[in-house]
Design brief:
It is a single chain. With 97 residues, the chain is an alpha+beta fold. The protein has one domain: Winged helix-like DNA-binding domain superfamily/Winged helix DNA-binding domain (Arc Repressor Mutant, subunit A, Orthogonal Bundle). Helices cover 60% and strands 14% of the residues. The protein has five helices and three strands. A three-stranded antiparallel β-sheet has the order 1-3-2. Strand 2 and strand 3 form a beta hairpin. It starts with a helix and ends in a 7-residue tail after the last helix.
Length: 97
């Protein structure tokens, strides 16, 4: 893996390496959702949820579109789902591996 690719991969990993961001990705597996639905699903405040969403969008993990006053997000990088499924497979529930 060359340096440029390694840096990009590291940025994507950092983009999802937070419990709230992982919950958002998990919620968006079902498809496109508006910010209000995402906030409700993860129990976050609007400003914090938007910050998390924007960070993942900026790293290419998510994509978004505006429809009137609402902003909708979806998973743009499906490889993130594969990676998280692989990691989850090796993590025992409720404990450390």
């Amino acid at each position: 893996m060359d340096r440029k690719v390694a840096e990009h991969v590291a940025e994507v990993l950092k983009a999802v390496a937070h419990p709230t961001r992982l919950q958002i990705v998990e919620f968006l597996k079902a498809g496109e959702r508006c910010v209000c639905e995402i906030m409700e699903a993860v129990g976050g405040k609007q400003a914090i949820t938007s910050q998390q969403l924007n960070m993942m969008r900026d790293k290419g993990v998510l994509a978004s579109r505006r429809e009137g006053a609402k902003v909708y997000y979806w998973i743009n990088n499906k490889n993130v789902l594969k990676l998280l499924d692989c990691v989850r497979e090796k993590c025992p529930t409720g404990g450390r591996s």
